[in-house]
């Protein structure tokens, strides 16, 4: 629709469990904007859950779907946009984000394990959450930092406090 054209007001990146969807919804409320997230776009388009896409077609296939979903959302969504935790792995996606206000919601390992737990719905953390989390963050931290125009630490902050810090950073 016509109101759905333009660029995102803010894009949230960061690992799973960092609060992108909770904080994103709060931000949308505060900004009088619409919240959207690319995981939900993919589930809607595919008609199946993310975990099922990973199991049935593999991570590479999911990443291709995600690249397309981010491209579409960035082109048409003039609101708050949250990306899946691994979206920054893709170089094309990182290039698309370069001109946008992108906030990285960071989180330490212990907070991650506490919030995401055994990650039944998150296929990447199923076996050894703490070790897998460290490996994941060692591989991704610099990518989140590369795309971010601001970093907001989420440890020991409520979602409301994180949302406020994001607004302050914009
Ligand atoms: C992933 C994060 C998930 C989802 C998928 C892969 C990742 O999104 O896209 O399970 O690679 O970190 P959330 O960060 O919204 O949980």
Automatic annotation (TrEMBL):
Transmembrane segments: none annotated. ATP binds at residues 17-22, 122, 157. Its cofactor is Mg(2+). It catalyses: shikimate + ATP = 3-phosphoshikimate + ADP + H(+). The keyword Cell wall biogenesis/degradation does not apply. SUPFAM superfamilies: P-loop containing nucleoside triphosphate hydrolases (SSF52540). GO terms for cellular component: cytosol. Its EC number is 2.7.1.71. GO terms for molecular function: ATP binding; magnesium ion binding; shikimate kinase activity. Pathway: Metabolic intermediate biosynthesis; chorismate biosynthesis; chorismate from D-erythrose 4-phosphate and phosphoenolpyruvate: step 5/7. It is found in: Cytoplasm. Substrate binds at residues 39, 63, 85, 140. Monomer. This is Shikimate kinase. It comes from Streptomyces laurentii.
